[in-house]
Specification:
The chain contains eight helices and eleven strands. It is α/β, with parallel strands linked by helices. A hairpin with a 2-residue loop joins β7 and β8. The longest helix has 20 residues. The mean pLDDT is about 90. The two termini are about 40 Å apart. The strands form three sheets. Strands 2-1-3-4-5 form a five-stranded parallel sheet, sandwiched between helices. The protein has a four-stranded mixed sheet with strand order 8-7-6-11, covered by helices on one side.
Amino acid sequence: MTQILIVEDNGEYAGDMADFLTELGHEVTIATTASDMWAALTRTPAAVVVLDLGLPDEDGFNVIPRMRQLYPEIGLLVLTGRVAFDNRILGLRLGADHYLTKPIKFPELAAHIEALDRRVRPAEPAPAPSKWTLRVSARQLELMGKVIDLTEKECNFLHLLTINTRPVPRQVIVAGMGGDDPDASRRVDMLVYRLRKKARTGLGQDLPLRSAYGEGYSLSAGFTLA
């Protein structure tokens, strides 16, 4: 979903445009004058502004540089009846990201808006490094400087979950603990219980271990292997 502000003095045309974009899942606001546009921008953030140059109270060519100064992060798409090549060059040089001319099919307009939104949208922050570290050779689990010792089976269990991105089936875990043992399934339950308790007591935080019925076990947080 993109937050779009349409600045267009033709109310009927603006309404048709807004209806089309809303049906695509975007959130659309309409302003019919430059004054309404500035007021709308102070009330509601916009990711993309669709700007008509022929506004009744201010020429769009005056709006563009001011928009760039006040809202540099906004994607600015000009949609106008001014088709002259010199106007197109001027609009782009003043700071418009796209310069489109009427008439235009709304699906094409939507494609330009979505492409512009992808480009100007802030990058997703990099994921935080894992707080959990499994030291396989030392059989230790570390969390923010705190360390607990693990048994061989506890370490093998966590290592198995760490190297798999999907839940590890219970039968695979049981097989690793001696599948021929009729008590193996119960021993898995006891191992998980002891491991959760050990982490809570020794590290002060619940182990990010997820149990899904019929699927097995998985980790709900990333682990670093060391």
